[in-house]
Task: structure prediction
Amino acid sequence: MKRCVSVVVLGAVLLFSLEALAAGTIRIGALFSVTGPASFLGEPEKKSLEMLVKDLNAKGGVKGNKIELFIEDTQGDATKAMQLATKLIKNDKVVAIIGPSITGDTMAIIPLVEKEQIPLVSCAAGVKITDPVKKWVFKTPANDHVAGEKLLEYLAAKKQKNLALLTVSDAYGQSGREQLKALAAKKGFTVVADELYSPKDTDMTAQLTKIKGTKADALICWGTNPGPAVVTRNVKQLGMKIPLYQSHGVASKKYIELAGVEASEGVTLPAGKLTVYDKLKKGDPQYKVLSEYDQAYRRSYGVEASTFGGYAHDAFALIVEAIKKSGSTPEQIRNGIEQVRKLVGVSGLFTMSPTDHNGLDLSAFEMVKVVKGDWEPAK
Result:
């Protein structure tokens, strides 16, 4: 009798253990610039990730496991990003990290995640994050050379061959500047001015005055807010007639708000399709994902979704897809992300490989321009 009871008890314990194992949690970390100069990136990324995790957990999680989320605010500080990444790995025992929001923070923690073998899906755009390929590092914004190529294709069609560059002197701007100059030389453009500004500069009149004296057909500003908004206002103040182009780093309504509706009118840039998804051609493969994401974000937060929040959306989608296909250990997640094929995201259609840890091409971008305080497809 005792033996029968023992067997029953043992069976119950084993069943409970199996159920507990099946209903476990998967710890995912995130590093965003929630406060500080890059908060326009980090805040929507944080909100998007929280919304997505809440929704997924309410539906039962992934493969029966709930997601346990650990979000830290780097404040756009590379040293702080390193400290917080260490905390996520050593203390919180996360199996993957989403973010950081900016290129500088991302580059700072790459040696750590490579050493600790924790997959990182960055929300920053700098091409150096994934080129050359690092085994444990991926990113969701299209590489800046893809954005640059999209922009120069547009300028070539407009027969605007003489370029003036005005780029921010941080990691994002440096990368963009290098890519633009290389692409310009390759595609037959002439760079007639090459000016820089600091991330903390509040007036770019001096640089723009020099550019005004050149024979530039187009002015390309490469940076993230608030600098590009300052440039836009200064261009208006100086009465410059050179067409102004921006990078995908300002592809949100925040840029229009900071620059002002009047000053930003006509400004053109390459952007993810989210900015104009309601104006896409019928049958666009991204429409459903873009529509659902924007509507869910509006329900949750009362405002429209941004391209930047979409970077976190896609990072989470890649990790979830990897867990479904391969498993939830760091190595399984890494391997699973690398095997993703044609995953429809906010930023584009992702096809990863051992030689491509970004997985996006020119189709990720639409050329858009500001018309009466809103984004419209550029023709």
Notes: The chain has two domains: 26-142+288-361, 145-279+365-377. The longest strand covers residues 25-32. The radius of gyration is 23 Å. Confidence is low (pLDDT under 50) at residues 1-22.
